[in-house]
Amino acid sequence: VNKFSLRMFGSHRAVEIERQRVKSAGTWIIHPYSDFRFYWDLIMLLLMVGNLIILPVGITFFKDENTPPWIVFNVLSDTFFLADLVLNFRTGIVVEDNTEIILDPHTIKMKYLKSWFLVDFISSIPVDYIFLIVDLETQVDSDVYKTARALRIVRFTKILSLLRLLRLSRLIRYIHQWEEIFHMTYDLASAVVRIFNLIGMMLLLCHWDGCLQFLVPMLQDFPEDCWVSKNHMVVSAQAGQYSHALFKAMSHMLCIGYGQQAPEGMTDVWLTMLSMIVGATCYAMFIGHATALIQSLDSSRRQYQEK
């Protein structure tokens, strides 16, 4: 029994009937409106955000990836993602119109296999377990280690975990909970949430773009015409490298310049064009959501005037 379940089912008796239905459905069936699933989703949401921020930095800028904190973070993340993959097979599915909750284990399994299983499976491959076993059992030479470092780009499959946020039922559930907490109307709450989500996505794209600006020259062993070599930053501190890469990416995405100098190499030219396209798209989406937010601030008066 919680605020969300009471709001969805209407009364304590209805919640109790739903609880009995969960018990009769099978062993270890998790209701999507239960407290456990809510807190688990919150933990997975924070863990996904942490992975999406930290992993690109680790892949691009970390010189030594065998430090204990980095290994612990990656192994812990892989463990949680694998556990989430298993729990999804035992969690009830909310039908899109919120009128029915599927609790049959066979139906849950088939629907999950046909929808998000492939994406979740790819994002949950324990790559760090494999690297950790290789590092512990064999002493690899420098060439093999460089190859393993390049293969660590496979960790970008974790970015596919972002698709989990696109589950409509889960997003609607978060919006309703925030609406209950802040006592806002649905139109205003949804508009504010969309604005904050969009701002967060734009900042995350800037972060990814900054890492990509440094990663591509690094994989090419820093050619002479790349921006890293021209700025003499090949052996600079990691903080300086990231700061300059982020400044270059944001300059492209905001279409206010090319950074410290215009791109010369073909790779820099294509990266600049990609950044500009992504930045222009985000800017157009931000204007659209901001317009919807302004219109929703006084939606009741506007609808009254129209009528």
Automatic annotation (TrEMBL):
<keyword id="KW-0116">cAMP-binding</keyword>
<keyword id="KW-1133">Transmembrane helix</keyword>
<feature type="domain" description="Ion transport N-terminal">
    <location>
        <begin position="1"/>
        <end position="36"/>
    </location>
</feature>
<dbReference type="Pfam" id="PF00520">
    <property type="entry name" value="Ion_trans"/>
</dbReference>
<dbReference type="GO" id="GO:0030552">
    <property type="term" value="F:cAMP binding"/>
</dbReference>
<dbReference type="InterPro" id="IPR013621">
    <property type="entry name" value="Ion_trans_N"/>
</dbReference>
<keyword id="KW-0630">Potassium</keyword>
<keyword id="KW-0472">Membrane</keyword>
<keyword id="KW-0631">Potassium channel</keyword>
<protein>
    <submittedName>
        <fullName>HCN4 protein</fullName>
    </submittedName>
</protein>
<dbReference type="GO" id="GO:0030425">
    <property type="term" value="C:dendrite"/>
</dbReference>
<keyword id="KW-0633">Potassium transport</keyword>
<feature type="domain" description="Ion transport">
    <location>
        <begin position="38"/>
        <end position="300"/>
    </location>
</feature>
<dbReference type="GO" id="GO:0030424">
    <property type="term" value="C:axon"/>
</dbReference>
<feature type="transmembrane region" description="Helical">
    <location>
        <begin position="38"/>
        <end position="59"/>
    </location>
</feature>
<feature type="transmembrane region" description="Helical">
    <location>
        <begin position="269"/>
        <end position="294"/>
    </location>
</feature>
<feature type="transmembrane region" description="Helical">
    <location>
        <begin position="71"/>
        <end position="95"/>
    </location>
</feature>
<keyword id="KW-0114">cAMP</keyword>
<dbReference type="GO" id="GO:0035725">
    <property type="term" value="P:sodium ion transmembrane transport"/>
</dbReference>
<dbReference type="InterPro" id="IPR005821">
    <property type="entry name" value="Ion_trans_dom"/>
</dbReference>
<dbReference type="InterPro" id="IPR003938">
    <property type="entry name" value="K_chnl_volt-dep_EAG/ELK/ERG"/>
</dbReference>
<keyword id="KW-0406">Ion transport</keyword>
<keyword id="KW-0407">Ion channel</keyword>
<keyword id="KW-1071">Ligand-gated ion channel</keyword>
<dbReference type="GO" id="GO:0005249">
    <property type="term" value="F:voltage-gated potassium channel activity"/>
</dbReference>
<keyword id="KW-0813">Transport</keyword>
<dbReference type="GO" id="GO:0003254">
    <property type="term" value="P:regulation of membrane depolarization"/>
</dbReference>
<keyword id="KW-0547">Nucleotide-binding</keyword>
<dbReference type="InterPro" id="IPR051413">
    <property type="entry name" value="K/Na_HCN_channel"/>
</dbReference>
<keyword id="KW-0812">Transmembrane</keyword>
<dbReference type="GO" id="GO:0098855">
    <property type="term" value="C:HCN channel complex"/>
</dbReference>
<dbReference type="Pfam" id="PF08412">
    <property type="entry name" value="Ion_trans_N"/>
</dbReference>
